Amino acid sequence: MDSQDSAPDRQTAKSERIGLRTTADLKATLERAADLEGESLSSFVLTAALREARHVLATQETLILRGKDRDRFFELLDNPPPAPETLRDALREYRRRVSHDDA
Question: What is the pLDDT of residues 21-34, one digit of tens each?
């Protein structure tokens, strides 16, 4: 098991709680699996939840581009198009307001 998938170290002080309600059947299934892994129910559930949370975060926060899309993305980073006039107007207005607020 990857160390990032494991529950927090037993030495780490724990001050937060998570409460769950479930059916007896689901709890028995989790307990059986935890026992087979040699873990407490809490550790087993936390480890599985952390693994899934990290997977969700990685897939939602990672952008993968290939081929032409990747090339276009980096081209635009290196050579961005000029800002539209409306954006430049908004920036000027923002700077005007902020400089007046400082006075």
Answer: 999 999 999 999 99
